[in-house]
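Hi L.,

You mentioned the student needs an example of a multi-chain input paired with its predicted structure. This one should do, with 551 residues in total across all chains.
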Amino acid sequence: MSASNSNDLHRSEIDAYGFKHGEDFDYDSYEEFMSRYLSILARRASKWNKLLSGSGSVKRSSKVKRYVRKGIPNEHRGEMWMCVSKAKKLMDSNEGLYQRLLGQELDPSIQSEIDIDLHRTFPENIYFCNDAAASGKQDSLRNVLKAFANHNPEIGYCQGLNYVVAMLLIVLKDEEKSFFLLEKLTKQILVGYYSKNLRGLNVDQMVLGELVKLRNPNIASHMENKMAPWSLVCMKWFVCLYLDILPIETTLRIWDCLFYEGPKILFRVALTLVLQNEESILTARDTSQIVERFRKVKSQPLNMDCHTFMQKVFLDSQPLKMATIDKLRSECEQNL
Amino acid sequence: MALTNSNGVVRSTSVTGEFYDFACKVMLIGDSGVGKTCLLVRFKDGAFLSGSFISTVGIDFRNKIVDVEGTKVKLQIWDTAGQERFRSVTHAYYRDAHALLLLFDVTNRHSFENIRAWVSEIHEYAKDDVVVMLLGNKCDMTSERCVKREEAEKLAKDNKIPYMETSAKSGLNVDLAFLAVAKDLQVKKTRRPNDPKFSVLEFVDQQKQVPSKCC
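Structure written out for the whole complex:
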């Protein structure tokens, strides 16, 4: 790679998080987007630096919420996730816990479930690919999943957590922090998502169906007619929190909101994806066509532009109250 | 659009505009890590890229149209997550499956021991006339093998299902597994009363290749 050509920076096959671009990666759209996004990033970075000058941490406020929605700059992202989710507080009050959990023996059947997935987690990422033993990220992934399983016997290991933890490790660059953020995520933000009966996950997929019914009854009834349950389309959205569904930069912007605002953002993003593909869903002739069309969301240029996408999420999905979700959850719970 | 093929069947078009006569749903099931996705990719694209596979979350699918004696059969192949907690999700798809390819890994004893449990799930959730095939995958890994072919054959025989050893890596018997399913459907759909019956079991026994033993 020649350093003299500035285009090479963007044409790099590997992104800032270590992911190799797929064969269908649209470099032209990406460059076009980045040329606009760089100035936004610079402006956000200076605002965040001002916000954090002095204390280095933030308190909940409408200003901070707005800042988070507009994206946490990479250099602050890890610390801010720890701060706004209160994972940092949890970690500080549980000194030594992570090391103790690591020292405990894990049920061999759970350990082997984890081990099977280690080599199948982001093989296209330079930190996790199978010849990256030197970077040690696969070992860190094993450690965090082990400590988590030891601490949460009712969950153990759930497939999908491998991706979530790998991403936490990429951003936080620290096992113990990743562990405590995972604790917050699974115990307070996404309750019951990864449990043995996946109850929270199943309920929320039904809730999405109800929300679509309220917002766009045509789509809801078309899905029903084509015998396409929402779980077929959106299970991975909710399990992997849009990892491998949307471009990585977009996913991280969603996670910014997830750690500050909670699970609402997952529904708002889902609604946006459903509504923006209305035409292609309504013209799909069978279940498989519906699945195929949803699979294309990753390469839609609109979704690569994370900034415009997030603006669209908050516009398209209209205000969504947690009370509405809770009400739908309890109704769906009864139907489950 | 409707066209008629040489067997007198009305043809429809698939999403990609390809013609096909029948569509059928095939599901890949079995423990986590036995190679379901690899088998599917080998069949679909003829490729095996070691170290490039990711674990499947939830349920995914791929289409492939195959030719069975002039009849185009569209196989809609559903790939599932193997972990037990996701089974409640995948059960829902069993009942309209035409065929279930049940995989274990010949280098993983545990995945073989779980086959009985998988078979009883099939009895519980799938249609009575579903075609089931037992596949012992990763048979190229001869030095790590810990399930003998004979024991797998016996288990299959006890359950009256065909057994084959496959390798998504070398491609051994991979196409055959899917073609046997397509052939079964083609015969079911086009068979006239006096035509001979088709047995997947016999077909597979005649056609399958036996992996060479380690020297």
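You could point out the following to them. Residues 174-190 of chain B form the longest helix (17 residues). The mean pLDDT of chain B is 90.

Best wishes,
N.
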